[in-house]
Design goal:
Chain lengths: ~400, ~350, ~500
């Protein structure tokens, strides 16, 4: 009888026990708890090579108090050194007492020295970490990454946020910047092509406050900030090429634009050819490999452009029509083909399979890949076709 | 309360696939590289066959235990059903470990205490104490939830996927195919689950075919998921564990609105909780039927015992996930084909004819 | 008028023994004898001072007595329709002849003392006379009744505004007025050993399942209680899981809703003294519907129902997720929001979970106080609550602004579905405690538990979570979604109605 009663009331007792446990845990919580107040929210990291390993500069967001009058986010730059990146991160913890949270890190800037060696020696940490998002942007910078992140810009108090503006969708559509994420870069690196690219960021001191303008010239140009009083200007119009994780070459602004066009990214860019400034309204681009005895890399660009400005004066009728002549279109096509040719030669010279031709061969003709993968870039012949169409 | 045919179809089409989205994609990518679809498809087809057999068996309207008792006697039936229950508990082990790792990674920003996963076993014990039939209504809710979750993450991911990464077909070779097929065989035990449900739902005409089609539809969703997963990650898919939590974050809207994809991920994780516990519950239901069908305290007691054992097991192998995987795809690799394929097929053996007196 | 205020000393005639069933007594001597003895026995049984006896004689000199409850009887009617005719009466002492003499329409003959006592307590005066074979009771009661008005808990902008009141007869009349059919059955029973509360079990014959009707009557009959102050006391008897947090009996204060529910095949219960009507079987989806949904366009109704669901889920989950995100999973916040929150809570001395618990408790206290507090203090309470506790607490750095915003939204959200507030406020607290202790995964597990509990709960054979679990496609047309009236030609299948079609 007593046993029966015990079992009848057992569920209620278990519930009370469970509720008590939850309440106890609520008031004395420590299930590996690292709450918001004990956390250093890292917005960006810079990685520089040192004699003994790496120096990691973390830009940590410092939230403003509840009395928010200024808006925006302020940040502090904290540096940690160690043999590996993980050791650097640990040092950050030791230095500050805050637990570094990399989950919000949206930008990794590699110093030039770091990029001269296999960058996956240091990116390995971020790929392994479950608490790091591989959608974060990658960039190489001129000089030391720590120096770049230490600069300030008028665009944003936080340098990383100002730099990230260079990699906005609008910038990408302008064709001035070729951005990449850790996932994309790692895919290329671990793929059969083992090649990749990153935007190359430079910090310049604005001399006269007039601000720099890109060759493409539009508001979405490669140079983001132009500040008065000699403040920092960030520029990501160049692109660094990587082969097997090592930086092998730098693409100029013109070549970067050509690369963007080949990727079919450009929808609102501007282009200046022979005194004509054109806005790119639509762009399709592709690079396909035609395998065979003499493989061909077929590079095709289709663009629709509109004349924005001509350096020579024109008749009122021409202004009104704003149409490009066939000759103009041919000249633009030739100029672009020349840029693509330059781009191809750089890739060929450095062995960087920027257009993932080896991957294309691997996917479509496995036996041919086994035969000719190693010297594919040397034997492949470029076939560049640019189709320009003027619209008004 | 009995399961209805619709609930069973919902389970086969939408709930059963969610258990295959955690570690299996990256494991398959490691074993079969870009050919990961083929071993998965083979396992799915075999399981579809097993589900079909189990549904045909259910046409008799008997539970597994009742059928075995009728054919082979009570003692044999008790032993056989208990062995089958043991298999189901074993089958639950890898999903439980997966669930634990998943919880540590997607529900926490930093590695939490091991005990953070313990409340799962409280819920599991509660669910296990209920008969298998009680699950039917949860599937009515979970199926749309899981379907929306899966559809949501796929929609967010599909634009960024490069399906060409699946080429060239056959690059992994027969070895890669075999390794993949055997390596993930421990995630495919749905035939055994349906067999455990036999007799707990009313068989309707054409149910076996419909069930087969539902399972294949769910399987197709899994294959599409795997293709998208590999299309997104390519060669780095190997270390993209918890695939379903990763593929959707590259959607451009995520940068603007924050991790909206968590809505879908949580929906899937929610359905996954029930799916993970299901083999444990099925085992408890079978054991209760065989050992103490009339004792109301048996099921709760057994549920507590099984879950306590599972908790201890999970804590014991806390740092040995890879080793456990090796054991399941090595020495224990025969267990899954035997219980989840052969047993459902054998269940279709003709009934013993009754001679007229 | 002669009034006996106390029974004569030593006049002990009866001794009641309880037979184990509420509301009934077996008496050793319960029959009516002569006037004096009956009066004494009755007064012995009803010794209260408000039970009065009026003695008079008819025209032929026969002694009469009228026993009545002072506050419950309409004395004007009593004098006009009962006493005056009887004072002029000359005739035989037979009950039939006396009843004919009385001009009141509602006259009943009573054969036992118990019956007499019950009638007096119900407000019906009883007549006793010399040489009687039976006594008589006259229906001239006058109970103070609140006027029919719009219930404060169920206000509509379109649709009927009548609400049930505390008077049983008014309530049954309100129902009968809307369902003028012979199929409307109002079966009455009396519950409460001391309160003798009248209970009406209302249903439509041929529509409500007989099994449900019988089960309701059986469960009600089994209720053993001395006083039944309100119908809500019956919900435990009508629930399959009486100790559960989950609501298993529908409630309404509006006769139009009550009748609509009866027409769907439910059984309704009215209790004397309570304006709250109960309906069974109950479906959770009911509380996401409002009467107004049926008077506005289907699109609007669907939108508002989805909004109610959204508000309710947000109210339950938002504080919990806010805490879990802060403590365990910062990624749930977009980075800019995270930094804003981090800035707000920077100088707060309490941990995020304690802060949220504190604010939530303050809200509950304010809520409780505002309901109970006299209306003229309400304004002061608003000022104290909103300004002193809210703004000053933020300025003083005790709590952060996001916490206040979240709790405020949660508080408002719960009232989007007011009928579930008892359950959801507890659930919100449970979610918060779980989120603060186990984190996001705790929320998932608790939700899984709640789901499992809900889908496995049945009452009167009807699953609480129907028509979603089990999925009844036909009934989904009027659950969270609301189809137009022409699509709702069938009665809900989940309720197991005997008559399936309600509209051609």
């Amino acid at each position: 009888m007593r046993l029966k009663r015990f079992f009848r009331t057992l569920p209620a007792k278990l519930w009370i026990l469970l509720a008590a446990a939850v309440v106890f845990a609520f008031f004395s919580n420590d299930f590996g708890l690292v709450d918001i107040q004990k956390t250093a929210v890292i917005l960006a990291v810079g990685l520089d090579k040192t004699a003994t390993g790496y120096a990691l500069s973390a830009e940590v967001a410092v939230p403003k108090g509840s009395d928010r009058t200024t808006g925006g986010t302020s940040s502090v730059l904290i540096e940690g050194e160690g043999e590996t990146v993980a050791a650097c991160v640990s040092e950050l913890y030791e230095k500050t007492g805050w637990v570094p949270k990399l989950i919000f890190c949206d930008l990794i800037v590699l110093g030039e020295e770091t990029a001269r060696q296999n960058v996956f020696d240091c990116l390995d940490y971020f790929l392994r970490s479950e608490y790091f998002s591989d959608s974060c942007l990658l960039a190489v910078c001129e000089g030391r990454a720590a120096d770049l992140l230490a600069t300030t810009s008028e665009i944003d108090d936080t340098s990383s946020l100002a730099i990230e503006k260079l990699f906005s969708d609008a910038s990408e559509k302008s064709g001035a910047v070729m951005k990449t994420t850790l996932r994309e870069f790692a895919r290329s690196y671990y793929g059969v092509s083992a090649s990749g690219y990153m935007p190359y960021v430079r910090a310049e001191q604005g001399a006269d406050g007039s601000g720099a303008r890109t060759e493409q010239g539009g508001q979405n140009g490669g140079q983001d900030t132009a500040s008065a009083d000699g403040k920092t200007i960030y520029d990501a119009a160049q692109t660094a090429l990587f082969q097997e994780g090592v930086m092998t070459a730098l693409l100029s602004e013109r070549e970067t634009f050509a690369f963007s066009l080949l990727n079919g990214n450009v929808y609102a860019g501007t282009l200046t050819v022979d005194g004509m400034t054109l806005s790119v309204l639509k762009n399709r681009g592709s690079v396909t490999l035609v395998p065979g005895e003499a493989p061909v890399a077929r590079m095709k660009i289709d663009i629709k452009v509109r004349l924005q400005n001509r350096s020579e004066s024109a008749s009122a009728n021409d202004v009104a029509l704003g149409r490009l002549t066939a000759e103009d279109e041919a000249r633009i096509g030739e100029a672009l083909a020349e840029r693509v040719g330059d781009l191809w030669r750089i890739c060929q010279n450095t062995g960087c399979d920027l257009f993932l031709l080896r991957q294309a061969l691997y996917r479509t003709a496995l036996s041919a890949y086994d035969r000719s993968a190693s010297d594919l870039l040397a034997v492949v012949r470029p076939d560049i076709r640019v189709d320009v169409m003027g619209v008004w | 309360m009995k399961l209805s045919s619709r609930q069973l179809f919902f389970f086969l089409a939408a709930v059963a696939p969610v258990g295959k989205l955690v570690l299996m994609p990256s494991q398959l990518a490691a074993l079969s590289k870009n050919d990961l679809l083929f071993p998965a498809a083979l396992n799915l087809l075999l399981q579809a066959g097993a589900v079909f057999c189990a549904l045909l068996f259910a046409r008799r309207g008997q539970t597994l235990y009742a059928c075995l008792r009728e054919r082979c006697g009570t003692v044999f039936a008790k032993i056989a059903v208990c062995v089958f229950a043991l298999f189901l508990w074993l089958a639950a082990f890898v999903p439980l470990l997966e669930q634990k790792l998943l919880v540590q990674n997607i529900f926490y920003d930093t590695l939490p205490s091991y005990i953070a996963f313990a409340p799962m076993f409280v819920f599991s014990a509660y669910l296990c104490a209920k008969p298998l039939e009680a699950c039917g209504r949860t599937w009515d809710i979970l199926a749309p939830m899981a379907a929306i979750g899966l559809l949501g993450i796929l929609l967010l991911a599909v634009g960024k996927a490069d399906y060409g990464a699946l080429l060239p077909v056959g690059a992994a070779g027969a070895g890669g195919f075999a390794r993949g097929a055997l390596g993930v065989a421990d995630r495919f035990f749905d035939g055994a689950l349906v067999l455990a449900m036999a007799g707990r739902f009313e068989y309707r005409r054409g149910m076996a075919w419909k069930g087969l089609l539902c399972y294949l539809a769910g399987g197709a969703a899994v294959l599409f998921f795997l293709a998208t997963f590999y299309g997104l990650f390519g060669e780095i898919a190997v270390f993209q564990v918890f695939g379903f939590t990763r593929i959707s974050k590259y959607f451009s809207g995520v940068t603007v609105l924050g991790r909206i994809d968590f809505l879908f991920i949580f929906a899937l994780a929610f359905a996954m909780v029930f799916y993970t516990v299901l083999p444990l519950q099925a085992g408890v239901t079978l054991a209760r039927e065989a050992l103490a069908p009339r004792n109301p305290l048996f099921a709760p007691a057994l549920a507590c015992a099984v879950n306590a054992a599972a908790l201890i097991g999970v804590l014991a192998v806390n740092f040995m996930m890879t080793r456990v995987m090796q054991v399941f795809s090595g020495p224990l690799v025969w267990v899954f084909p035997v219980f989840s394929l052969a047993v459902p097929a054998l269940s279709l053996l003709p009934r013993r004819r009754r001679h007229a007196p | 008028m002669t009034v006996f205020s106390a029974p004569p000393a030593g006049a002990v005639f009866f001794a009641g023994t309880h037979n184990g069933r509420r509301g009934t007594h077996t008496l050793r001597m319960d029959r009516i004898t002569d006037l004096k003895q009956t009066l004494t026995a009755l007064k012995r049984r009803l010794p209260a001072e408000d039970i009065l006896i009026f003695s008079f004689r008819s025209a032929d000199g026969r002694a009469f007595a009228c026993v009545y409850a002072d506050a419950l009887t309409d004395k004007d009617l009593l004098g006009e329709q009962v006493l005056s005719p009887l004072m002029r009466y000359r005739g035989a002492p037979a009950a039939s002849a006396i009843c004919e003499c009385v001009t009141a329409p509602e006259v009943r003959r009573c054969g036992s003392l118990r019956q007499l006592a019950d009638e007096v307590l119900a407000g019906n005066p009883v007549l006793l006379w010399e040489g009687m074979d039976e006594a008589a009771s006259v229906g001239v009661k006058k109970i103070p009744v609140r006027a029919v008005a719009e219930p404060p808990t169920d206000v509509v902008t379109r649709g009927p505004r009548e609400g049930f009141v505390e008077d049983f007869k008014t309530n049954t009349a309100l129902v009968r007025r809307r369902l003028k059919t012979a199929d409307l059955r109002i079966d009455t029973l009396t519950l409460g050993e001391r309160s003798n509360t009248a209970i009406a079990v209302c249903y439509l014959r041929g529509i409500a399942p007989k099994t449900t009707v019988d089960a309701v009557k059986a469960r009600l009959s089994a209720v053993e209680i001395d006083v039944l102050p309100d119908s809500s006391y019956l919900t435990h008897a009508l629930s399959s899981r009486p100790h559960s947090l989950v609501k298993q009996v529908g409630t309404t204060e509006k006769p139009d809703i009550f009748c609509a529910k009866l027409a769907e095949g439910r059984v309704g219960i009215l209790a004397d003294g309570s304006p709250i009507a109960l309906t069974v079987p109950y479906l959770m989806a009911e509380d996401f519907q409002s009467a107004e949904d049926y008077f506005v366009s289907a699109h609007r109704a669907t939108l508002t129902r989805l909004l109610r669901l959204f508000a309710l889920l947000t109210a339950i989950y938002l504080p919990a997720f806010y805490i879990a995100a802060q403590l365990f999973k910062l990624q749930l916040f977009p980075i800019k929001l995270l930094l804003t929150i981090a800035g707000s809570i920077r100088d707060i001395p309490l941990s995020p979970s304690l802060e949220m618990l504190l604010v939530l408790l303050v809200l509950e206290v304010l809520n409780e106080a505002s309901i109970r507090m006299p209306k003229y203090v309400g304004m002061a309470l608003s000022v104290v609550g909103a300004l002193v506790l809210g703004e000053t607490a933020v300025n003083a750095g005790f709590v952060s602004t996001p916490a206040i915003i979240i709790v405020a939204f949660s508080g408002i959200g719960l009232y989007a579905v007011p009928n579930l507030i008892e359950q959801t406020s507890v659930l919100r607290l449970a979610m918060l405690l779980t989120a603060g202790s186990v984190g996001t995964y705790g929320i998932v597990l608790l939700s899984a538990f709640v789901l499992l509990y809900l889908v496995t709960t049945e009452n009167f054979g009807v699953p609480l979570a129907a028509p979603f679990a089990p999925l009844v496609r036909r009934d989904c047309k009027d659950a969270l979604l609301k189809y137009g009236l022409p699509s709702l030609h069938m009665r809900p299948k989940s309720l197991l109605s005997r008559n399936k079609r309600r509209m051609k």
